[in-house]
Amino acid sequence: MKKMNIGMIGGGFMGKAHALAYAGMPMFFWPAPAIPNRHTVVDVTEELAKDAAARLGFENYSTDWRAVVNDPDIDIIDIVTPNNTHAEIAIAAAKAGKHIISEKPLALGAEEAKTMLDAVRAAGVKHAVAFNYRRTPAVALAKKYIEEGRIGKILNFRGTYLQDWSADPNSPLSWRFQKKIAGSGALGDIGTHVVDFARYLVGEISDVNAVTKTWIPERPTQTGGVDKLGTVRNIDADVPKAVVDVDDEFISMIKFENGAIGSIEATRNAWGRNNFLTFEIHGEKGSLYFNYERRDELQVSFSDDPSDAKGFRTVYTGPATPYGEALWPIPALGIGYGETKIIETHDFIQAIVEDTEASPNFQDGYRVELIADAILESAEKGAWIKVNDLGQK
Ligand code: NAI
Ligand code: SOE
């Protein structure tokens, strides 16, 4: 069986998730399209890189991502670094002829994402963007029902992503609060997952009308140690404060090209909400509801349900639903974050081996960035904004 050498850039939170997926993928999907080999992991210091290699099971480590991108033994470059580094690494990897999977959001904005899309298209390499939540079996089941016409023509999509890890004003100013590193706040960090759901399940978004808020305008700085999300940082005892220049929260009305309407909102300041990533979709013949915090379940209600049994009922995902054969043998046994990454890894490596387009890919990452840019512009101008396409379809 073919082996594919992985060069993974970044050994933090997502480094762990992707390394787990490389190890686990062939255990779930057998025969695997190819065996991912954890060849080299890169981080910014020798200590971090060495530790990441030991912890995440990589054969080698490095502090020089350029050398790894140009290493002829590497087949796939996996970008799991903060958002401001994605473009430079991806463009160099494309030029070196490597297949690329990048974490979301693809870039700091649409213009930068377009340079990445241009680079992978010019190089003819395979490319994927890691919107892994659409790999949750219940989300893929919703997609199947929609494609089969089970809820009819879609009227409305209502999506949320609510977390509370930054509601505490003492939660430190990690890179996720800095525009030059993150691009935007809750919008790019978590709102883009909902935008991905909307595009995947309903279709292209044409217009947005949004409001953004920064509830906590300054936060304690940090220089090392480990923060709540496992990011390596030191939090000094007597820290100065620094300005937050991104959104803590946004809400946007949306219009789809196919005539459906809806809303998307995201916040990291909602006490009590942890990974409250949801959608409710209303169609002419039924409705679907999903909440990632109950990720084995899809709530369904159909117009032809008996009149004495109106309301949502729960479908549990399992062997008979999407990805079921590869996963666990009993419905509701429990899908986790790891499984979504394992499926994502499988689908990307399969696209490489079978020479098909990976999905979602940099084109999708770029379209999501166009929508995110339009949301920011709309919030600034207080008006409906058409989603532009920068001349790149
Ligand atoms: P993190 O801060 O935990 O880890 C990033 C790692 O990259 C750190 O170890 C850091 O030292 C390293 N790094 C930074 N610059 C580097 C460089 N130039 N060369 C090599 N290593 C470098 O961040 P996390 O949470 O892993 O996020 C990484 C990316 O993954 C972000 O784009 C984020 O938005 C995305 N993400 C996606 C998730 C999803 O559900 N799909 C979940 C969490 C993060
Ligand atoms: C932090 O808000 C975060 O880790 C995001 O960066 C991820 O994309 C999300 O899936 C989980 O939360």
Automatic annotation (TrEMBL):
The keyword ATP-binding does not apply. Residues 4-130 form the Gfo/Idh/MocA-like oxidoreductase N-terminal domain. Residues 140-288 form the GFO/IDH/MocA-like oxidoreductase domain. This is Gfo/Idh/MocA family oxidoreductase. Keywords: Oxidoreductase. The keyword Oxidoreductase applies. It comes from Peribacillus cavernae. GO terms for molecular function: nucleotide binding; oxidoreductase activity. PANTHER family: BCDNA.GH03377.
